[in-house]
Amino acid sequence: MYRLLTTMALYAFAALLLPCFTAAQTEAPLKRFAFSHPQMGTLFNISLYAADSTQARKAADAAKARIDEINNSMSDYMPTSELSKLSLTSGSKKAVTVSEPLWLVLSASQELAVQTKGAFDVTVGALSKVWRKAIRQKTMPAKSEISTARKSVGYKKMQLNAADKSVQLNAPNMQLDLGAIAKGYALDEALKAIEQHQVSRALIQGGGDLVAGDAPPGQPGWQIFAKWVTPQGQLRDTLLQVKRCAVATSGALYRFLESDGKRFSHIIDPRTGMGVTHAAMVSVQAPTAMQADALATAISVMGPRKGFAWLQKNYKAIPAIVTFQEKGKPVQLGKLRE
Ligand code: ADP
Ligand code: MG
């Protein structure tokens, strides 16, 4: 009995010491490395802490490869992507079994479409094409173009069958567009890929979105900039320290078409077929970048006040900051969490 107790005491002592040793081993010589990768029409920037350049490069290469894989599957610009091929089956009355990642993103999209009554809708592709062209050519789309495209848009026309993870698109010429969610998913997956190389202290940014892993050594979080508007209406960056969360920003700040004194965004209200005209900027902070990305776009579609109220009601724990002009005055709702 005495011996058993001593052995147990020894084990307990060893267990107490162990975390100190492992912590000392992983904490000591970490160095910061940075990588960038152009993909999905934007630049992905990776910052991470690793023991040496070999480990850092392996982790970053894995992240880049994962981002490429997701782009190859989910791009609506690439005719060979899994998503584009799926869109080509629309109206054929055939259900197509899709890959696990595409299933995950499409089911999350469809869930949000139901929750937002179609404000968020990844079947918006036919309208996206019309508005992308309009923005490029700086000309308003013809009413007939919009009404034709609307026939191929609507989340209720996309049927997801959980039993065999298949998708059936029930109207002709439907075009799926994951532009509001796939980048977020790619960020989450890139972080996971990095973590598989025993690197947990990483920050990945893509366009206006980011995902943060563990904090840099000895610091409370990664320093990031969140955008906001001063009472004088100037755009400013505010410093925030974050870890283990994601922040996505959506807004009509850079991509829009000016017509009749209104700015029509590349973010579309699928229920009217029109580019949204409230130039609000929305940042959402969520556990995953996929969720942050999709919610930021959903709020942009609903409009700043309605969208923010909707988020507070349906996602109490998710912080967001929404800035916009109202009657010529800047308004700011909510704030992000450190
Ligand atoms: P960013 O282009 O800055 O990443 P978002 O994340 O808001 O901004 O995504 C905008 C993109 O989402 C559009 O370019 C289009 O491809 C797609 N989209 C537009 N309107 C909607 C909508 N109502 N629901 C889902 N996706 C949309
Ligand atoms: Mg988005």
Describe it.
By secondary structure, the chain is of the alpha+beta class. It has a domain at 82-169: ApbE-like superfamily (T-fold). It has nine helices and 17 strands. It has helices spanning 2-27, 53-74, 82-88, 100-115, 125-137, 143-150, 182-195, 289-302, 304-314, and strands spanning 31-39, 42-50, 95-97, 158-161, 166-169, 202-206, 209-212, 222-229, 235-242, 245-251, 256-259, 262-265, 268-269, 274-275, 281-286, 320-326, 329-333. The strands form five sheets. The chain has an eight-stranded antiparallel beta sheet with strand order 1-2-6-7-10-15-16-17, with helices on one face. Strands 3-5-4 form a three-stranded antiparallel beta sheet, covered by helices on one side. A two-stranded antiparallel ribbon has the order 8-9. The radius of gyration is 23 Å and the shape is globular. The protein starts with a helix and ends in a 5-residue tail after the last strand. The structure holds adenosine-5'-diphosphate (ADP) and magnesium ion. Adenosine-5'-diphosphate binds next to helix 8.
